[in-house]
Sequence to fold (656 residues):
Amino acid sequence: MTPWRSIAAQVSGLRVRLLLAFALLGVTTTAVVASGSYFQARTVILQQAQDAAVMALTDQLAKVYPVLQLPPTQDELHLLAQRLSDREGYAVVIYRDMREQGSLTPVSLTPELRQEVGDGQIAWQRVSQDGQPTLLIGTQLRIDRPDGTSQPSGLEVYSVRNLVPEQQSIDKLATRAWLTGGLSLLLAVLLALLSARGVLRPVRDLGRAARRLGEGDLSTRLTVRGVDELADVARTFNDTAGTLERQVGELRRMESDARRFVADVSHELRTPLAAMTAVTDVLDEEADHLPGDAGRAARLVSQETQNLTQLVNDLIEISRFDSGTARLALDDVDVAAAVTATLRMRGWADRVHADLPPAVVARLDPRRLDVIVANLVGNAFRHGAEPVSVRLSADADWITIEVADQGPGLDPEVLPHVFDRLYKADTARTRSEGSGLGLAISWENARLHRHGERQGSLVAGNGPGGGAVFTLRLPRGTTDAGGAR
Amino acid sequence: MTGRRTGRALLAGGLLLGTLLAAGCGVRPSPVITGRSAVSGPAQGIGLYLVAQGELVLVLRPVKPTTPTPPSEALARLAAGPQQNERDQGLTSEVPTGLTAAIEVTPATGRFGDLTVRVTGPTRALSPTAIDQIICTAADAAAQAGLVGGPAPVTIVGSDGAQPARRCPAR
Fold:
């Protein structure tokens, strides 16, 4: 089916159709013109040859007169036949039952010719004798009577003339006609190929440009040649691509503006926050001495200031990823030791079931590994249920860290959005303890690690036991490839 | 749709080519073509009319070109009958041999161009063909001698009276 269709597509393709149309046109025109002129030329050649032969015969016959004796003797008849024969043809002379001819070649005169000659007309006919075209011309020899009339003498002269030279000229004409036809067919095919190229090249260019545009190269443009319909299409394509590029550029600019704004705002907030943190530290110390509502308020302010600081730090971190300025600080790290340190620093060492085989060394950024692991484990404590387990495994190319809890697991609707920024899984819970950026930052950190084709990844899912499972995979030999994006 | 159109065009082209090729190459046999009337020219000698298969046939007896032949000479030769070579060609004469000596030609006196042939015997004994032979030979010979200007009617007069004037039927 498919090969047939491809063959059909080839056959009905533009190129083949143009080729066929041109060839047909060329051949038909040439056939009509060449055959028309061939037939006309043939008629003219034959007519001229016939007329000349008839004229020559009548001229020769004029010298036969006056007729001396009737009936003629056999010798006279023979002499007459000899006189009328030359190298172009020979004569047959008939008187009643007597017959003489100027050649040994047997010749058969057609009855219809003899009939016409017997009726007193000069008559001729082309026949095929022994496969050769032959012209037969016949006439009576009439005798002028003294009273002004003419009387048939009973003598009939037939001239037999070979038409082979005429046949040869006509054959040459035919050969030339065929040659002309062949040449014109060749010319038609060449022209068809040229015009097919002229039509097909813009179409092919258009297809290629459309594909490039579809692949995201918005700067693709076509060269507009000429003023035909195809040039119109190319112009329209260019206009469309231009509009698309402008609009996408606008969108990108707006997006980067928004990101820069967030980054700028975060930075601007840092200084006042530092001051506020210093003040709330003092307030914290004094809160225990404050009575009732004032003490609670002081503690609340202190807590929220800490959250705000965390949020601003996370925003700054995220904006570094967005602007592509995040850099890895690579080091050869004993992964088990690094994870253990992370847990111990957060005071989670006793609450987490850790399965960490020793002597797994990988080249990675220890600070970012710390951020990821802390985020995942903290997340498991906050949203899942204990016991939380951390399992490390490694092969030649990858290290894999799985963080699992025994909670209800992740809702399938939530799963695709887990790593979105500020995504709230539970809409009823308006205030989260985290900034809402932790998992997004972890995801970006994981992707920042790459080695050749291998890029780190962070995947969320549900374990067979029902709890949420976050799987971090990092290439073992990360090389600093500069910007993450 | 396109394929069918192309196919139709191809078919038309093929038919056209086929028709042209069927018309043939080279020199084809033709039917009989007729031109003007046959060649005609003068003759020398005494013209006589003999009979072959019931039709009059002109024969020419060779003579010396210088001596003009009187019409009676031609009639005398006609009455003498066909020669050997003429008989070989199947030519006969119905004019009786006994008639010969008495034949004479006189130009008509009243209307120029009328001829009278006097024969010795009775005209009723002559067959119609014999009469035609005499009339034609006489008319030719008279024209040859300058006695008449064109095809003249001939009256045959015999011992039993005259036949009505007639013209030579052989033309």
